[in-house]
Amino acid sequence: MREKIIEKLPKVIKEATPYLENERWMITGSLAAYLQGVDVDVNDVDILLVKRRGVLTNPTPQFYVQGVSVHLIRDPSLLLYSYKALLKAYERRKVVESGGIQLPVAPLEWLASIYRLEKDEGYKKKISKIKSHPSFDEKFYKEIKDKAIGTSED
């Protein structure tokens, strides 16, 4: 599935462009980890829109592009992200090339800090893979991991 998603990624971003124009955004979830070299399964495309503080938006739109599920995550508080931690993650986002386009992706430390909130055993395996990646910054992870829970007002 991840090969199909990577192949379709330029088309996905093109289809999502109306939602992304004039917004701060980054790819998050397993796709962000995979694009940074972590060997994880990828089942969909999650795009996090980093809204200005206090701006609430409509529920998360979901759509499909050539069979690829795309989630636009528009309100960080829906995911229990602390707004301050989210901004730190956004400031540390990586930019990777895929399919001839530059893509902002959530830092690995952010992904690990969010995945640790999940109860499913699969997330523990993802965390282990992410933490063993050579670019994983343990210091940054410790800085944000306890701030991953909160509200958009944090």
Walk me through what this model shows.
- The structure is a single chain.
- Helix 4 runs antiparallel to helix 5 and helix 4 packs across helix 6.
- With 154 residues, the protein is α+β, with helices and mostly antiparallel strands.
- It has a single domain, classed as Beta Polymerase, domain 2.
- The protein is globular, with a radius of gyration of 15 Å.
- The C terminus is likely disordered.
- 32% of the residues are buried.
- It has a 4-stranded mixed β-sheet with strand order 1-2-4-3.
Give a nutshell description of this structure.
The chain is of the alpha+beta class and 154 residues long. Helix content is 40%, strand content 20%.
How many domains would you count in the coordinates?
1
* Percent in strands: 15-25%
Query: What's the CATH first level?
Result: Alpha Beta
Largest sheet: 4 strands, mixed
Fill in the keyword field for this structure.
alpha+beta; Beta Polymerase, domain 2; 4-stranded mixed sheet; two-stranded antiparallel sheet
Question: In terms of topology, how is this protein built?
Answer:
Elements (H helix, E strand, L loop, with lengths): L1 H19 L3 E5 H7 L9 E6 L11 E4 L2 E6 L9 H9 L2 E5 L2 E5 L2 H8 L5 H11 L6 H8 L9
Parallel strand pairs: 2-4
Antiparallel strand pairs: 1-2, 3-4, 5-6
Helix pairs in contact: 4-5, 4-6
